[in-house]
Amino acid sequence: MKNKLTILLILTLFVGNAYAEVSLPNILTSNMVLQRDMQVPIWGRADVGEKIKVTFAGQTIETTADLFGVWQVKLKPLKQNSQPANLTIAGKNTIVLTNILVGDVWLCSGQSNMEYPLDYRLKRYAAPGRGEDLARQELSKPKTDQIRYVLAEKHRGTDDIKTVGWITNTNTDVLGNISAAGYFFAKEVFEKTGIPIGIISTSWGGTAIEEWTPAWIYKNSPYFDNQINFQDKKINGRIAGSKYDSMLYPIAPFAVKGMLWYQGETNCMTEDQAVYHEKVRLMLDLYRTLFQNPKMPFYFVQISPYLYTRRTNDAKKHTEELLPEFWEAQEKCLRISNTGMVVTTDLVDKLTDIHPSYKWEVGRRLALIALAKDYKKNVVFEGPVYKSMKVNGNKIEITFKDRKNDLVSIDNKPLTWFSIAGEDGNFIPAKAEIQGKKVIVWSDEIEHPKDVRFAWNERAMPNLFNSAGLPAAPFRTGK
Prior knowledge:
This protein is of the alpha+beta class. Helices cover 20% and strands 27% of the residues. A hairpin with a 2-residue loop joins β3 (51-56) and β4.
């Protein structure tokens, strides 16, 4: 018992000296947006046993720093507030955070296409000779102060995120680095709802999904436990959790409304791409627990057409159908509750550019999902999605899930990127036409058709849309 007391005293003295003043994590700063309609954690460090008082929006909550110098309080659910307010944290010292709004906070993460900034010239993602796009033009436009952003800079430490803190639209030096997709998502949602929006931008180009999920999650999964080396934390040659540790975990448990995810290019064309959706499920289950939001919406972007077959340094032999197979794995993520997917087959100028622009449209389409599902707005949020097929003589009738919106050829030309196969399973290009709410597919060379594929090629940029201007999702029957 005496030894235990001695150890406890040493620990208390060490921690007490380490946190002489009340301090906050880097995600808690002036200008931030706090999440409405749910409990809001406020946390930090202080001397062991130090009393802390947090005051905001008529609430005052007291707590005491624990044996490790850690403290946390939870504000009761807050009402939406567009008027700036102050938050005070008082201990031996006092911290006052100013200009705080209450609205909805969205976490934006992924790899380079989510990282792709408003000022695209700041990154290597810009294609040579590309003119000024709509994203960069936003920097010079008048902006509302009801949208706030925080950018987690690339950082490999594990203590906290590296950031200048929450910014308003007037800080153009930092704003140019904010995720363009996240920016346009926030702009669309705010314009349609009037709710203050906070965007947490934490992405890292070239990262695989494994890097955003810690090793112990894979080790505890019956599906992946035999695939991870727990000594070096590697799964599929990548260090599990390397970006999670520095870019995401320190943000929690900041209260968030939902998450936007734009990632997959690094996992495409790999040996295990077919189980990508299982890795998303593991990651999302963890994040929903971490942010204390078990039903947290998760809206993601299906990666764009690209000539992956040009890559010659990958272990897996590439074919033009491997990208559609990855699209299929991404679409399986929709089986997870509270998810939504953006299709981007039409948002490509060059098949050799893995970083297409049009991030304003990606952000808008993500916003459409949120507006429909979370803000209950009467908007169309997805294009035609395959439902069923029926063989009728030498033709196949394709039915889609959405029966409200008309099917259209976006360029008024014959439908493209349909293929059809008979009993031998060999697919050949097919003719296709819209008949009411269905698409009829056939080939004069196949008398007894069995299956259809749509956009089943890495080059596919088809013209089948709905009347709301959203593209049809790639699919194959018989799978």
